[in-house]
Specification:
By secondary structure, this protein is of the alpha/beta class. 37% of the residues lie in helices and 11% in strands. The protein contains twelve helices and ten strands. The strands form two sheets. The protein has an eight-stranded parallel β-sheet with strand order 1-2-3-4-7-8-9-10. A two-stranded antiparallel sheet has the order 5-6. The longest helix has 13 residues, at 129-141. It is globular.
Length: 306
Amino acid sequence: MHRPLLTTAAAAVGFGTWQDADAQEDAVTEALKAGYRHIDTARIYGTESAVGTAIKKSGIPRSEIFITTKLWNNSHHPEDVESALDASLKDLGTDYLDLYLMHWPSPFARGDALMPKKNGKIQTGDADYVDTWKAMEKTLQSGKTKAIGISNFSKAELERLLKETTVVPAAHQIECHPWLQQHAFTAFHKAKGIHIQQYSPFGNQNAIYSSGQNMGKLIDDATIVEIGKNYGKNGAQVALAWGIANGHSVLPKSKTPERIRSNLAGDFRLEQDDVDKLDAIDKKLRFNDPSANFGWNFYTDLDGKK
């Protein structure tokens, strides 16, 4: 990537802006004040404008902030990629991105509708993610983004992408946490020089994940809490430190000023013994899988696929 995502504490812990669109301008303002310099958004979140406004108001130079946004599924047709990027840039109030990700490998029908539906069912598109990626490669040449990457790909999908295209993804943003560790998959990325970004680093903390509701929370896991006591850290901070110990970026989200600050303190060094203990609590539990809704079978060759 044009500058390593893990060069500073602020970059290792990024700030996620999914959900609560109306609260995001204040949340990002708070995050920047706390010291975050890596902000993660996406077209579908509806938070790009709020992120852009907060960055502008902060007075922090653009060059000091790492901004990621994501191409949405309705813009996978190769002819739609650049205009989708332009729309994101406009809302973010910047002339370049640090990282542009393909949000999912799955195309929706072309058009302005973000979730195009017919009789209540998502209308899928026919664009091939390989062709979508080739169009994204062109946005690198134009300078509109410094790096391109992917999100939510299976191993087979990623292997095909690597085989049929030129630019190796700079990053892959995936669900990853101590209950869904995917060591073989992340090692594959390391061998290819692809940086892992962990979304939902607290696992089932998010109430939107229905499959994670009838069980305890990951951040209350006995092993995680016990390890935290040795460092004076809470379960959320330990979960983040586990990701960082694995060389990943972590993308916690919160709209509470206190938690926003607290999550940044998840960048601390775990002793190897403690990393080993955390490695032993993998439950292969995946909470985010919209396969049924998106008309695409995701994660077929990965841990946690039901």
